[in-house]
Amino acid sequence: MIKKVIIIDDSSTQLNLLKTILAKNNWEVYSAQNARIGYEMIFDIAPDLIITDAIMPLIGGFKLVKSIKENPAISKIPVIVYSILDVKHARYYLQDDINEYFLTKSDNINSLLELAQKAIIDHPLTEEYKNQILEQSSSQTQTDETEDIETSNEEEEIIQEEIQKINEDELKLAFKKLYDFTLDDEEIAKNFFNILYPLLKYDLGLVSVHSFEKKEEKVYLDIRDIILSPIFQNSILHKYKAKNNTLFKTYAPHSKTVVNLEEFNSKIELNFQHLNKKMAEVCFFSFEEEKWQDEENILILKDVLEKFFIARYVNKFSYTKKGSQKKYSLNKTELNFFNKIENALLENNHIFLVIVDVVNFQQLKDELSTENLDIINSKISEKIISTINKNEQIHKNYEDEYAIIMFTKDEKELKSRLKSLYALLNKINYNEYSVEAIITAADCMIDGSYNIHEAQKIAQKAYNEALNEKVVIKNDRQ
Predict the structure, then answer these.
(1) Rounded to whole angstroms, how far apart are CA atoms 476 and 242?
(2) Which of 89, 237, 329, 441 is paired with 121 by a 20 to 30 Å CA distance?
(3) In angstroms, rounded to a whole number, what is the distance separating the alpha carbons of residues 412 and 408?
(4) pTM for the full model?
């Protein structure tokens, strides 16, 4: 007997691809471009299987799974979440049978077909069970007909208002995957657009960032069903003072050619700065009039992107000690940092992010020559380096701030090391000028997983306490 499947994905391209492949493999295929419609279809079709995307602009796939599993009438239907996320991030939402219900889109399509077959074998639905689902649909229809029309319309408006909001938690979860800044910028940009296109449905996406490796601006463009003229691309390079751009293309043979930005009727422009320095500019353009009017959605988007670009800035901006080839930074060319994290966890060590802040740096900068200021910085670096172990990492975040990754057996050992470091730093004296430093630290084990970026926020929040205590450690290990 042919089995029924409902596929839910807001990307029409992905939806059509899966429909074609599953139909060729003897599935009776039904599809929906948002989770709400897909959920309603369950009661009209009584499928043997549901395949859903995770990151969608309406109701997300993880919420859909939760709704299905909490409804006894349909909870036995197997659901596969098919997403750009990886298993590690899916664990936040899918606690049980993670390998059975989740598949990443980077896997071969045959893996999906095999998992689909496994799902219906492991979770077969009887005809009686499916008939009960269909009967519930019929009963629901009769109930709906007796309801007051005005009330139904009002509820519909509430539902529509709710599902049109960007799901902030799922957007943050999707961006966590991009926080591995050891990846090539082009790969990060490509994944960046893959996450945001389903949410915004833009015709042109643009990201301009500073390439730390080449010390120049780089522009990444994502086009959908359009062609950019050479004149247009040159104007973009000129506008962002960039030498070249990377173009990600998804268009049909007879796509419209765009010559300038004035041809678009809607746009989102977001600028991101840190300490008065440009981190990035992100723009989205559409031919549709008044495409993006929801200010709350834009604020959510801006907040998530701002945290992402600050994290990128902190990780890319490394410090090299003068007169030495030894480079300290958080990237994969330096002693395989992530392996060290893994080894530290295996040894039951705590992983701490330590931030050393020179509170009188501005005074030193104003009163010392550049050469003398460099000597002070060099002395600070030497003291910090003398206190860290060979498996630990240090990089300079800003002019007056250093970030250190330390591995310790417990908080007591960390506090002892930091007090010694504090004493060393505050003994630095040059031409009657002394260094005043404070130290804050945060445990990087947050919500059960290693997270340097959340630890950084916690350490920064501890700054005010550190003004009085000089050395403050925040432990948020859960």
Answers:
(1) 42
(2) 89
(3) 9
(4) 0.41
